[in-house]
Amino acid sequence: MQSASSETQIYYHLLDLDESQKQQYLDELSQTQPEIYRQVQSLLACSVSEENLTQLLVFGAHQATHKEVNLCGEVIGKYRLTHELGRGGMGVVYAALRADETFEQDLAIKFIQSNLSNVLGRRALFDEAQLLARLNHPYIAKVFDGGVHNDSVYIVMERVFGQTLNTYLNTTPMQDIDKLRLFKQICQAMEHAHQHQVLHADLKPENILIDRNTRPKLLDFNLTQKVQSDGQKSPSALIAFSDKYASPEQQSGQYLTEQSDVFSLGKILALLFPTPAFWSDVYWVIRRATRIKAKQRYLNVRALRQDIERIIESRPIEQKKHWPLYSTLRLVQRRPLPTVLSAIIVLSGVLFANTLIQKNIQLQQEKKVAEDMMYEVTRLIFHTKGRNVEQMSVSAMMELTRRRILTNPDIPKHIKQKMLLAMMTPVPDKHMTKTISCQPNCPPQKDTNE
């Protein structure tokens, strides 16, 4: 019979048995080790599948990482372990220094629990660690070395001094633009990892440290998760994730793609901006990144990062380009001074053109009024031609002119008022012409006022 700490060996042993042998084995297990029997039986209740294997391995990892194994003070290869930094579902992390004292170097060494090494194989874990070692990015904790100690694969990494993302946000006030720049740096790190065919598969605030220079450092890549390009599940894939930040396909045990990390990044952006307004660009970026269906999300981290850059630079994001006046508003925000100057120039041009038009209309009106007045004078002359003009006084002529002006509908009202006002002004007597009463061939009379 297997020991209580060998659940994975029990599972593999069951796979080699036929149905009758399997049932006999389980019956014996239920009598001798009921606790392990209940764990195994719950996994085999429906059918033996890959999802059951995953749950069993996670259970084994949980049991292993909660054992009180203390390696503090031990020398592992070239490294001396000083104290424990953290413990998770995949292993334990210790702070370390170079034991030979040839270099002063602060390191972190992660020990992957031995059960996972036995199930997945050391070679597979080393291959994944080698992929991480190829990553060379300022926002990813660097992997330097690796080895095996007491059946556990360990990985030697850069030690990052800083706070986890959620702790940093709770203790440090940040402007929105600073949050966007920080998130952009996280996206750049993930974009670099994806270019080297490495998924993180466990992105959450606890795995993002903010160092003393306020730069992010990504930690704890899930070594059992691989980029899936053929649409097939990886037989060695373990479900190790945070329910709040893991994509729906990861929670359901499906294969993972870059869009799984996109979903987690969207959740982290939502942590940075808990209540974005509906019309804000951040709201629409979060909305697209965290879609339930992977095909509706950003195609990759690069597309997500580009939209973040557009927000930082006040450029229109892809999803809102069709919104009325949206692109114009972003242009004003991006170049306020040139936009205002251009608007002033355009407005001045419009006002100048409008003034010219109004002046032209006024000139046309004045020309029309002058023509109408000339017409009235001409009509007045012809109207009085048949009368005894010699007997008409100036006052009579003025009155006749006033009537003609008032009855002409083509002369504007304000022109009529000015003309009538001028006609009502008294004329000095010396300028008045006396009534002429003379016969034909009568010699002209001399003005007595002269």
Automatic annotation (TrEMBL):
One of its GO terms (molecular function) is protein serine/threonine kinase activity. Residues 79-331 form the Protein kinase domain. PROSITE patterns: PROTEIN_KINASE_ATP, PROTEIN_KINASE_DOM, PROTEIN_KINASE_ST. ATP binds at residue 110. SUPFAM superfamilies: Protein kinase-like (PK-like). Transmembrane segments: none annotated. Keywords: ATP-binding, Kinase, Nucleotide-binding, Serine/threonine-protein kinase, Transferase. InterPro entries: Kinase-like_dom_sf (IPR011009), Prot_kinase_dom (IPR000719), Protein_kinase_ATP_BS (IPR017441), Ser/Thr_kinase_AS (IPR008271). This is Serine/threonine protein kinase.
